[in-house]
Write a structure and sequence with these properties.
The chain is mostly helical. Helices cover 61% and strands 4% of the residues. The protein is built from 8 helices and 2 strands; from the N terminus they run H-H-H-H-H-H-H-H-E-E.
Length: 161
């Protein structure tokens, strides 16, 4: 998880952070297992995610589908969620996309067949202009310089001057 101050989060966000930390360290407390994450709302991924994690903690022997869901939440969804919350600027969008791809590589081949097309359909931050924005705001001077000296041709490819 990125270095973030949990005091800046809502109750649901703090709950997600605590659950992920406890699941990763395999020290699930009965306090979190008994605490209800808030009303279920299918339109809010965060509350649904928290309910899934709460269900996982409360089960003595969770089935393989629940374990798969929890692995996806803890290894892909939550890290990206907190990265976005810690740096919500659009200049970081391309970095988030790369991280999402990187985090999802641990998935089974079957799950990658489902996830990869979704990432491709939602890869707005892979567009050329967004990559140039990310480069122009990068902390490394040689990357910023490279973006400043780049121009695009009519076909949309980046060319160096």
């Amino acid at each position: 998880m990125p270095n973030i101050d949990p005091n800046e989060f809502s109750t649901d966000q703090k709950y997600l952070l605590e659950m992920c930390q406890e699941i990763t360290t395999e020290q699930c407390s009965t306090y979190l297992g008994n605490r209800k994450p808030g009303p279920m709302c299918h339109s809010r991924w965060l509350t649904m995610t928290n309910w899934i994690l709460q269900l996982y903690i409360s089960k003595e022997n969770p089935d393989k589908h629940l374990v798969t869901l929890v692995n996806c939440i803890v290894k892909v969804y939550a890290p990206i969620w907190f990265e976005i919350k810690s740096k919500p600027s659009c200049t970081d969008g391309s970095h988030r996309l790369i991280h999402m791809i990187h985090y999802s590589r641990y998935l089974s081949t079957e799950l990658k067949r489902i996830v990869d097309p979704v990432i491709q359909r939602n890869s707005y931050f892979a567009y050329l202009e967004n990559l140039l924005i990310a480069m122009a705001t990068d902390e490394r001077p040689h990357i910023r310089q490279s973006s400043a000296s780049s121009k695009t041709c009519s076909c949309g490819k980046i060319q160096q001057e």
